[in-house]
Amino acid sequence: MSGNNDRETFRACTDALLRPCDGAWVLSNPRTRRHIELDAAAIAAFTQHAAGASEELWQEALNGAQGHDRTAPTGESGLWGDPTGLAPCDGSAVSGDALFALLRRHLFVLQDGANEYENFLAPQTSPLDDAHLGTFHQRVGQTLLRHRVRERWRWWHNQKFVDDGTAIQAAPYKLVQENFFDRYFANADIAGERILDFACGNGYFAAKLARLGANVVGIDTSEPLIASAQRNYGAAAEFVHVADPQAGLDWLAQQEPDSFDRIYMSDILLLLLTPEDGKPDPDNVTCLLSALARLLRVGGQMHMMEPNGTTWLAGRYGGEAGRNYVIVPEYRRPVFNVAPTLDRVMELVGAAGFVLADYRHPEISDDSSSDPALSAYANEFPLWDFLTFRRWPDDGSSLGDIRAHA
Hints:
Blueprint: H1 3-7, E1 10-12, E2 17-21, E3 24-29, E4 34-38, H2 40-48, H3 55-62, E5 67-69, E6 93-94, H4 96-105, E7 109-111, H5 116-120, H6 136-146, H7 152-160, H8 172-186, E8 194-198, H9 204-211, E9 215-220, H10 223-233, E10 238-241, H11 245-254, E11 260-266, H12 269-273, H13 282-295, E12 296-307, E13 315-317, E14 325-327, H14 342-351, E15 354-360, H15 372-380, E16 384-391, H16 399-405
Parallel strand pairs: 8-9, 8-11, 9-10, 11-12
Antiparallel strand pairs: 1-7, 2-3, 3-4, 4-5, 5-6, 12-16, 13-14, 15-16
């Protein structure tokens, strides 16, 4: 131990929470999504030196104590998994200086005078950057690299759909999103309407709309997904592949004004406002929404199914089914969260000429989930928001006039 280390003081992170979990005590940080299971001796050492002590004193207090790393990689279960980051205990315990190193690595013990914690709570600078928390998208990207996944679209696709794209996996996408979609549009009387499914992916939902009697056009930038849509649902709807977002805007500009009765978008706004590369282009989003407003007839409806900006990626705590609670460590200036807040959505969509007409929180509608804890969570806290906007006319008409056009 160097004399320099003896003079350094290390203290407990004030964001750390100690809680009972699975019959043990777990030290958790809802901001960094890190977790360490501690035995009684480790808890005593942590509380004894929480206000500050040297590395030598920390290691001495942790001798004979045991801790288990229970931090799970982000994104292992895709978009619908529990984002809390808590893994099962694998039984590999560490003690003494190794336990101190684990507490340091997960930033439960911080060096006084250093900005290591603040520095960690920042976007990643590259896909290989593990020194910063980064966004949910960036963390998932690291998971894909670790698994050597080359077809990113396939990995994302199979989190939601079966391999050939003809059904949805028995998970929240099915139990929440699809069941709500089916109920809502079965009562919407869309027969004969012309509907644009923007960012339609594999065409699954476009085909559902077509089966209800609508004339549907789906557009997407993914060539493999559009190929799947044409293969599975080409007889039901029209599908258009565009090479990139700019080509998509060009295609929208070529369509006749007021030519669609409805527009549907699912899980796309978060990718536009917080893209995977961490480089948002607000001007592109503004241009897109204005282009969509041009295509929608006055009184027509634009539907958005988007992850809830508050509770989708919130850490999930509590043990009893139906007694879940969430911890929301960020909101206006998110580091990890990628879902836009409602005020941000309203600002952009309203500026493009839309008015909010309906706002719902889809729930799990049956008990067929194999994960009771997830079902309980989804019935208490929204995973998605379903927003319906109407196009606002350019002539100063009132909301009543808009409804008269519907």
